[in-house]
Structures are given as C-alpha cells and as structure tokens.
Design a protein that fits this description.
Shape: globular
Oligomer: single chain
Strand order of the largest sheet: 2-1-3-4-5
CATH topology of one domain: Rossmann fold
CATH architecture of one domain: 3-Layer(aba) Sandwich
Helix content: 25-40%
CATH superfamily of one domain: Methylthiotransferase, N-terminal domain
Number of strands: 20
Bound molecules: iron/sulfur cluster
CATH class of one domain: Alpha Beta
C-alpha cells in the first residue's frame, strides 16, 4: 500500500496554492492523498499568521494531531507556512512532536526534509527528529522561492499561478514580510509556460498570485528589445495565449498602480472586470501609521480612473478597524470612504496585534468592545451598499463560468460572473457541465450575488485532461 498524506490549509489563496505545490511534491514521492488525518504517514498543517484566530487554531489542531503519534510513532508531522517561519521556536517548545518546520519560501525543500525526518525515525526522540540542519533548510528567509515544483491542482476549472513571492512593504500591522521575505519575481518564461499548459489542459480561469502582485517585474529588468517586464506586460502576454481565458489577480498595491496599468487592465480582453484593491483605512493619519504609503485621495483617484475606463467594473477591498490610535473621527473617515466609493464587497476585520510587526510595540488602545462596534457598523453599511448595487444589476445578462452544483440547493448550479459575483441558476451538470460559459439573466439580487436563469450557452468545456502536472517546462 502506498504511504499516505493529509494537508490541512489555513488562510489565503497563496496558502491554498502552496498546499497544492506540497501535494504535488508528495505525489511525486509516491504518497497518496487522504481526506482525514487518521491513517496518514505524513501530516502537514499549512498555517497563516495574519490574524490571531488561525494561530490559536493551529495549536489546538496540533494538540489533537500529536496524539496520532501514539498509534504511529513513524508519523511525520510538518508545520508549513507563515507560522512555521515566524513561530518556529514556540512551535518546537510547545509541540515537540512536530518533525518538520517549513517556511513559505522553502516549500521545495519538503521532499528532502521528509527523507531526513524518516532517517531520524523511529529511534530519535520526536523533538530531535528535525535536527538543526533540517530546521535551517526549511526556514531560510533569503532563499530563492522560485524553483519549479509539481502541483496537484485542487480545481479543474480555475488555477492559481504564482508570479511574485514576498513583500518589500513595511505595513506596521502586517506579519507577512517576516514570514515570506523580500519580493522575488518569477521568471516570465516559466509563468507563461505554466499558463499555456493550463490553457491547453482546458482550464478556464487563472488567478495570478502575489502579496503585491502588481509589483511584478521590478526586479527583472528589460527584454532584449528594451521592453520593460512588468505586470502590465505580463497581462498582455497572457492575453496572447488565449484572450478568452479569464484572468484575475490578487492582491495589487495602490503604489504600483499607474495610468498605463489601468489602460492595460481595461484594454486586455482576458482580464476580468473585477479589481480587488486593499484600502485598509479611509483616514490619512491612520494610513500613515499603517505605513501604507498612499493617501485616501490617491486611492480614490485610482478607483475613479478604473471606473472611467471600465464602467461596469466591480471593486472590492480589505479594511481593518480599530488599528492602534484609531479615533472615532478616523473611523468616521473610513465609513465616509465606504459610502463614497461604494465597494461591491469588502473583507473587514478588527485589528489584532501580531508580534514581530512594528505596531506590536504600540499600545493596542482601541478596546475590544469598541473594535467590535466599529466592525459591526462598517459591515452593516457595506452590506447595505452591496445589496443596493446588486439590485441595480437585476435584469442584466452576465457571462457566468459554471463551477458546480450549489451546496444548499442541488437543483441549482453555481458560477461566477466576470465581476466575481456569485450566480445561482436552475440546471444540472449534464446540460451545463462545470467549466461551461453561459449567459444568465439576473432575476433576483442578494448580498453575495444573484439568482437568475440561463439565456444562452456560449461554450462548453474541454475538460482538463489531468489535474497533476508540472508547473513549467
Ligand atoms: S503590502 Fe503591507 S499588508 Fe500587504 S503583504 Fe506587504 S506588508 Fe503586508
């Protein structure tokens, strides 16, 4: 019987894709995936350090998983991701059963670390299973994060493609730079090969990933003809592969927006009409303390320019309330920004301090109850805005990429518009297979999107032939 692995993922899309890469490497080592930790020979928790809750969850998960070592002393437990990088000492101290610690930049070391852990088992004590060398190998913040690895895609319709790793910004609340290190752009030839391969396999949608995705290329220089390699250029090259491929990207930074990028986004057919642009606060003093490096005026200008070029674009954002020193007047400015900009959707959070960040040293002086009050007020406002915006779109026809059957109602299918809104509509996968492009008339609006009815089938899928492939040639 083949040895088996189980990966549990916390956090963002980057973590989801990192898990796909680790799964690809484990497949190549001869392991097979299982859907529960019991019975696994290798267990990996891929962690997130952005907020406090996933951190607590990690220790409670590890508390139950460590018990599995009693029945299988050769079980290898790995902790990967941002917490492995940032909390290595604490994880080793609190859970000595952990064999492997693997920072997000070091994923390609997984096979070698597994071999090393296997060599140490079963005679070494659990705490010694990851010796100093293997620990160092898995936590090197300076290492090159770009080596090609196999990928086990978790989806046969949409695929994630890494384009830039790390972050050079120093937002005072953010733990990402201490976990993912400095920015490194992936070579464009590898990215384009991967997109070409995904397109040939029948994937319909690509999401380009990077902590500051639109910083892509600033470290790559120019091509032989003098053409600068940047994010706008990359979008144009992907469009040449297949303009009908849906392309999304997350997350851009306002500082890397310029007129040219806005024009390319507007004029490049493959780029979906959806911009997710983190705002974080609507107040300039608060933005300054956060070291976001832009003002609310600059942010507004970008949105105005994007909306002028792409009138039906959907704009979504991330925002934090209750950051250190946030006054009532500053919070009011965030409410005002939300009223003025009218986001289609927003991910809103109450600030929680993360250690190793600059703000960790500052007083966390907005009381918890006040943070929750502000969060509730902002969410209520945003929900009202989103519902109103969606109501105005009822009656329109939208291109929808069919994703599958609705969890809540098996008589309905679910898909997304190019603007990333959910659409539910009656139908079955025989008539509209997952991956089909259909035109759906929106008949009823909700906070999250619409319920509608199919008008036309544009295109049925050529199903992906396989879900495991190499990232690049
Ligand atoms: S841009 Fe700021 S918030 Fe985003 S990953 Fe970098 S440091 Fe964190």
């Amino acid at each position: 019987m083949k040895p088996r692995y189980f990966i549990q993922t916390f956090g963002c899309q980057m973590n989801v894709h990192d898990s796909e890469r680790m799964a690809g490497m484990l497949d190549e080592l001869g392991y097979e995936p299982i859907t529960a930790p019991e019975g696994a020979d290798v267990l990996v928790l891929n962690t997130c350090a952005v907020r406090e809750r996933p951190e607590h969850k990690l220790y409670s998960e590890l508390g139950s998983l460590r018990k599995l070592k009693h029945t299988n002393p050769n079980l290898i437990i790995g902790v990967a991701g941002c917490m492995a990088q940032r909390e290595a000492d604490s994880i080793r101290r609190r859970v000595p059963e952990v064999d492997i610690l693997l920072g997000p930049r070091n994923l390609h070391h997984l096979p070698h670390l597994i071999r090393q852990a296997q060599r140490n088992h079963p005679h070494a004590g659990a705490g010694e299973a990851t010796d100093e060398t293997s620990k160092a190998d898995g936590l090197d913040l300076e290492c090159d994060p770009t080596p090609v690895t196999p990928v086990r895609r978790s989806n046969t319709i949409g695929a994630y493609v890494d384009i830039i790793f790390g972050c050079n910004f120093k937002c005072t609340y953010c733990a990402v730079p201490s976990a993912r290190g400095r920015e490194v752009s992936r070579r464009s030839i590898e990215i384009l090969d991967e997109v070409r391969q995904l397109n040939d396999l029948g994937y319909r949608e690509i999401t380009l990933l990077g902590q500051t995705v639109n910083a892509y290329g600033h470290d790559l220089g120019t091509l032989d003809d003098g053409q600068r390699i940047d994010f706008a250029w990359l979008l144009q090259q992907i469009n040449k592969i297949n303009p009908k491929l849906r392309v999304r990207f997350t997350s851009p930074h306002p500082m890397y927006f310029n007129q040219r990028l806005i024009e390319v986004i507007a004029d490049t057919e493959c780029v979906c009409e959806h911009l997710h642009l983190p705002l974080q606060s609507g107040d300039n003093d608060c933005l300054r303390r956060m070291k976001r490096t832009y003002t609310i005026e600059k942010y507004r200008r970008i949105i105005d320019q994007v909306r002028e070029k792409i009138p039906h674009v959907a704009v979504t954002t991330d925002t934090i309330v209750g950051f250190c020193g946030e006054t009532e007047a500053e919070f009011e400015n965030t409410l005002r920004a939300f009223r003025d900009i009218e986001f289609d959707q927003a991910f809103m959070f109450a600030y929680s301090p993360r250690h190793t960040t600059e703000a960790w040293e500052w007083p966390d002086d907005v009381p918890a109850a006040e943070k929750q009050r502000r969060l509730a007020e902002l969410i209520a406002l945003q929900n009202e805005i989103a519902r109103d915006k969606n109501r105005l779109l009822v009656g329109g026809n939208y291109e929808v990429l069919v994703e599958g059957i609705s969890d809540k109602d098996p008589t309905r299918l679910i898909g997304r518009t190019r603007t990333n809104k959910l659409m539910l509509f009656p139908g079955d996968l025989h008539t509209y297979p997952a991956g089909s492009l259909v035109e759906v008339k929106a008949e009823e609006a909700f906070l999250w999107g619409f319920v509608g009815k199919v008008n036309t089938v544009f295109n049925r899928p050529q199903q992906p032939k396989m879900i495991i492939e190499l990232q690049a040639a």
